[in-house]
Amino acid sequence: MFSLDDNLADLAALISSSTAVITRYLEENRLPQPSFRPDAPGALPEVPEVQGARMALIEAAAKIQHLATGADDFLWQQSLVLKHDQAVIDVFNQFDVWDAVSLNQPATYASIAAKTGLSEPNLRRLMRHAMTIGLFTETAPGSEQVVHTASSYVCVRRPLWKAWIGHNIEEVAASSINLTKALRTYGDSQEPAQCAMGLTFFPDFTPEQTFFDWLSADANGGEKGWRVGRFGQAMSSMASLGLARIDHINAGFDWDSLGKATVVDIGGSIGHTAIELASKHPDLTLIIQDFASLEPQHAALVPSNLRSRISFQAHDFFTPQTVHGADVYFLKHILHDWSDHYALRILRNLIPALKPGARVIIMDGVVPPRDAVPLTVERLLTSLDLQMMTVCNSKERMAVDWMALFKEADERFDLKAIVQPPGSAAALIEVIWKG
Questions:
Q1: Residue 392 CB neighbours (<10 A)
Q2: Beta strands 107-108 and 145-147: pairing type?
Q3: Which residues form the O-methyltransferase dimerisation domain (predicted)?
């Protein structure tokens, strides 16, 4: 949190001490230092000592930049500059400028323009702005030789990030400009179409239709369903982020304590989470439920050695659960897509399939009290909350919200534990069905 007492000298000292912790650890362990070179590591080591210093460094750097910018310039720059940062990233993503520059060979502006279809004058203007935020650089100022930086090379190294950028800028950012209009028009509506995304992309939908209906139905730019595929890839890309790393799922619940068990992964997309669970816990059998259109991607993704324990099933979680008697019904980042009105429907549709002692395990954001987490995590959580408001007319929930939701769904849901794995932005919420 920003404090009225923050000052340049104290923040500079914190930056220095935090930097010393990180560099000392890297030196002692003979690990490379962070750099802008494209072959630099994409993240710092996931150890508490380093990550604690990293969080402190990011927070102090953000605050000192804010103070150095000054109050007058801050809002002026925020409203002028940030939209153009996103616009450049959007252009580079849609024209695939990322792949127009190789890792080991500088590229001329003319060659990049020829590969992408952008005119050279427009490319130069876009590239000049991109270089101010560390995307690409020249071998020397005025050299006309463009090379990758670590950040511009990410989409070459991790192609799924193109889907993440496409979803967030082409769909979410385009809707965010209508958030004010949506709030004025719909107020506290809990209907999924009555949000900024609905106003922008599907204004003719009925109130109960959703962003996900639009993903399935929209054919602009390709055949119907192409947006569903991209959205699945975008969600899969999050697994590489430290705060959203897929293996956090193993630290929030003792899966091996289940013994031989069946887990239904509701809304499990193409199967990254199921693969993680199956590979780490050999007694688990996984059933993924999601859009039928995702099944081909699922089939291509699952390794041959896990296919006997992972299956895919088309299912709509607004209809009664079709798998009866499973040991765990797992919902990862599902309920935050829905207002309380619809989240209650999802939970109640599980009830006919639940056996006494069955678990419902939710992996989702649990918004902490103010100042309980570093500023970086706080900004991620508030951004996700506004993402849900913009896209789905839904929200992220605090612990008391989760308790109230399950109690309202049915008194027989017993919330047993909320566990936040170290370094994870999401918690695992364990609920027992008392029958």
A1: 21
A2: antiparallel
A3: 93-152
Q: First-to-last CA distance in the chain?
A: 43
* Predicted structure pTM score: 0.86
With residues binned 3-state (H G I as helix, E B as strand, rest as coil), the percentages for the chain, rounded to 5, are: 50, 10, 35
Distance CA 174, CA 178 (A): 8
Q: How far apart are CA 380 and CA 243, in angstroms?
A: 9
Arch. (CATH architecture) of 236-433: 3-Layer(aba) Sandwich (3.40)
- Determine the angle formed by the axes of helices 71-94 and 120-131, rounding to 10 degrees: 130
Residues of the chain with CATH 1.10.10.10: 80-157
pLDDT category at 288 given cuts 50, 70, 90 is very high
C-alpha closest to that of 6 among 74, 53, 49, 68 = 68
Quick one: DSSP state of residue 220?
A: T
Where along the chain do the CATH 3.40.50.150 domains lie? 236-433
Name the token pair of 61.
Answer: 């750097």
Task: Output DSSP code: residue 172.
Answer: I
Tell me which residues are annotated as active site: 336
80-157 topology per CATH: Arc Repressor Mutant, subunit A (1.10.10)
Evaluate whether 294 touches 270 at the Cβ level (below 8 Å): yes
Q: What strands, in cross-sheet order, belong to the sheet with 328-332? A: 310-314, 284-290, 261-266, 328-332, 359-364, 427-433, 413-419
Taking phi over 0 as left and psi of -120 to 50 as alpha, with beta for the rest, 144 belongs to: left
Contacts of 318 (CB under 8 A, 6+ apart): 342, 345, 346, 349
Which amino acid belongs to residue 117? G
Contacts of residue 259, Cβ cutoff 8 Å, sequence gap at least 6: 283
C-alpha to C-alpha distance for 148 and 21, rounded to whole angstroms: 28
